[in-house]
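[worker-b] picked up task from shared queue
[worker-b] task type: protein-ligand structure
[worker-b] ligand name resolved to pyridoxal-5'-phosphate; SMILES cross-checked against name lookup, match
[worker-b] sequence length check passed
[worker-b] input payload:
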Amino acid sequence: MEEHNSTKSVHAGELRHKPEHTLTTSIARTSTYTFRDTAEILVYMQEKAAGSPPYSRIEYGRYGNPTQAAAERKLAALEGGERALLFASGMAAVSTTLLALLSRGDHLIFGRDSFYQTREFVGTLLSRWGIETTLVENDRPEAFAAAIRPGTRAIFVECPSNPYLRVADIPRIVEIARANKLLTVVDSTFATPLNMRPLEFGADIVIHSATKYLAGHNDLLAGVAIGSSQILADVGGVRSLLGGIPGADEASLLIRGLKTLDLRVRRQNETGLRVAQFLEKQSAVERVWYPGLPGHPDYETARRLMSGFGGVVSFELKGDFDRAGRFVDSLQLPFIGPTLGGVESIILQPAALYSLDPFERKLGGMKDNLLRYSLGIEDADDLIADLQQALAQL
Ligand SMILES: *Cc1c(COP(=O)(O)O)cnc(C)c1O
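[worker-b] inference finished, payload out:
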C-alpha cells in the first residue's frame, strides 16, 4: 500500500522498534564508531572491498550517522527516490552534487532565475575550475536545447525559482536531456516533495535546501540530494571527501520538523494563494509573482506539474526602493530577513540585502521595488489584515 504524504512524513524512514523502546529516534551524538577487536575491523574491510555503500556499519562520522540515516530514509520516501544524502546546508548539497557530476572541460546549462548563491557558485568557482556554464531562461525548454554543445554534461534548474517563482517545464527539459544523454538536476526547495516530485518526471537528482520547508522552523541548516542509488554513489563519495555532513542534532531536529511537513505546507499553500489573490487586487501593487495566479507567465505549467503553489509570494510595489522599504517596515507580523519556508512569516526586499553584492551587480542586480514574502503558518486573515494596514500607510 502506497501511503499518503502525511503518513510518510510521520512514520517513514524511522525504525518502528527502537533501542530502549523509545518512540522517537534517538540522537546518536557521536563523531566516530568503535570496533570490538581487530577481527571486526578485518570483516568490515572485506565487506567494503566487496560491495558498494551503504555498508552494514559506519566507520566514522564524516561517512554517516544513524540519526542522519533515518532523516535520509524519510526524505527518500517523501520524494519517491531510492536514496537520499543529507548535507550540512543546501549549498553543500548543490556544490557537492555538481562537483561529483562534473569534471574540468564539462559544460553545464543553468536556469537563470535561481538562488543567487547557486548562481555565484557555478559562475565563479565552477568556472575557475574549468567548468563552463550557460545561463538560460527557466521557462524556455528550447533555450535549454539550443545551449547544448559538445561537452555538455548536465542541466540544473530551480523549480519554482527564486525570487520570481518561475516554473520550468521539467518533463520537457528531461526529454531534451535524455535525448542528449545529459543529467537533469532540479532544485525543488520551493516546491517541497508535497507540491511537486521531479523524479516522477524523470529528473535524475532532486536537491532541497532542507533549511527551508523541510525543517520548517528556522532553527537549523541542512540540505539533501535525492535520486537513484547508482547516481548518488558518486555524490556520497564526494560528500565524504568534502565533509559537508550535518550533525546528529540537526538531523534529529529535521526529523521532528518533517513530521508536520504535510500540515505546514497545506496551510502555506492556502495562505500563499489567498495572499497572492489579495495583493493582485491592490492598486499600490504593480505586479504579483505567484504560480497559482492565472496572470503568472508559468501558470499553465505550474498547474500541470504542481499540486500546490507554496507559501512564497513575490511582488513589486509601485514606487521606488524607499517606498518598498517603508512598506516592509510598517508590517507588524513578518520578521525582516533572508530565508523562507518556516513557521514564522519573513519578508525581504532583496535589493536591500543583495544589491551591493559584487557578483549580483555584475548580473544586473535586483529590482528595487521587489519584495519576497515567505508566509508562515500564522492565520491568513491576520496576515492579510497586516498587509492591509501597511498598504493604508503608504
Ligand atoms: C536557501 C536555498 C539554497 C541554499 O540553501 P542553504 O541551506 O541556505 O545553504 C539553495 N536553493 C534554494 C532554492 C534556496 O532557497
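[worker-b] attaching auto-annotations
[worker-b] The chain has a mean pLDDT of 95.
[worker-b] releasing lock
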